[in-house]
Amino acid sequence: MELTKVTALMKATALELAILTGHLVLYPSGIVAERLAPAPAPSVTPGRRPVVLLHGLVDNRSVFVVLRRSLTRNGRDCVESLNYSPLTCDLRAAAELLGRRVDEIRARTGHAEVDIVGHSLGGLIARYYVQRLGGDSRVRTLVTLGTPHSGTSVAPLADAHPLVRQMRPGSEVLRELAGPSPGCRTRFVSFWSDLDQIMVPVETARLDHPDLLVHNVRVSGIGHLALPVHPTVAAGVRDALDADGREASGAREEEPGTTSVA
């Protein structure tokens, strides 16, 4: 491995450890479900679409502290996080819960659609809701951060957990998602990192499907845990949510368009 690649990997690993330490401190604050935002007054015209944040495996809403602040400071006045139970054993059940939460937010805010940002497993749950449970009529844009769209083979000993098995290449859930999805109306933006050690191979976090409108954004220089907290990624997420059918202003797959945070 070239010296520059080794150096970049060492920097990314050090950052991952620092983020993990900070997240362990914040984790207890995210265990309890957040207080719901009040409904707007009838005379007030709803602003920009609500954003729903969905965390990954064995995590909670505290992972989005930085991203949430970035979104609210830039005009998103309704940003809500959904915690699904750590005892959840089926991705489909979590997707159904997400659907109920989306309908509740739509009814409470008066918006016909929401945007969703999902980290890791959270992106896969949201994708299942959109593709398989009719969520494409309610979700304008789905942004995924380090999501195993075609399955990850990391940590084979973790297969005892049903959700981990559903994230393996060739699982029944992933086969469902790879099937035809004609007319899907949701726009997908998938951020994937070339130093993500949880996504094996790293390209599994790309979303490639002939029926979906997808923009893949390659991020260079950070790992899996940094994706929901790095300011450069947060800026890319904001651009993706604001694009509304235009391509996100972040990177494209081909060099030199890669978003580099090294």
Description:
The protein has 262 residues and is of the alpha/beta class. Helix 4 (121-132) links the parallel strand 3 and strand 4 (139-145). It has helices spanning 3-26, 65-73, 91-109, 121-132, 162-166, 172-178, 231-243; strands at residues 51-54, 79-82, 114-119, 139-145, 187-193, 213-220, 259-260. It has a 7-stranded parallel sheet with strand order 2-1-3-4-5-6-7, sandwiched between helices.
Which helices and strands appear, and what pairs or packs with what?
Blueprint: H1 3-26, E1 51-54, H2 65-73, E2 79-82, H3 91-109, E3 114-119, H4 121-132, E4 139-145, H5 162-166, H6 172-178, E5 187-193, E6 213-220, H7 231-243, E7 259-260
Parallel strand pairs: 1-2, 1-3, 3-4, 4-5, 5-6, 6-7
Helix pairs in contact: 2-7, 3-4
Look at the helices and sheets and give the structural class.
Answer: alpha/beta
Q: Count the DSSP helices.
A: 7
Strand order of the largest sheet: 2-1-3-4-5-6-7
Distance between the termini: 17 Å
SS strand fraction: 5-15%
Name the helix and strand elements from N-terminus to C-terminus, one letter apiece: HEHEHEHEHHEEHE
> Can you give the mean pLDDT?
86
- Largest sheet data: 7 strands, parallel
Low-confidence stretches: 41-45, 245-258
Number of extended strands: 7
Question: What is the 3D form?
Answer: globular
Instruction: Write down the Rg.
Output: 17 Å
Oligomer: single chain
| Percentage of residues in helical conformation | 25-40%
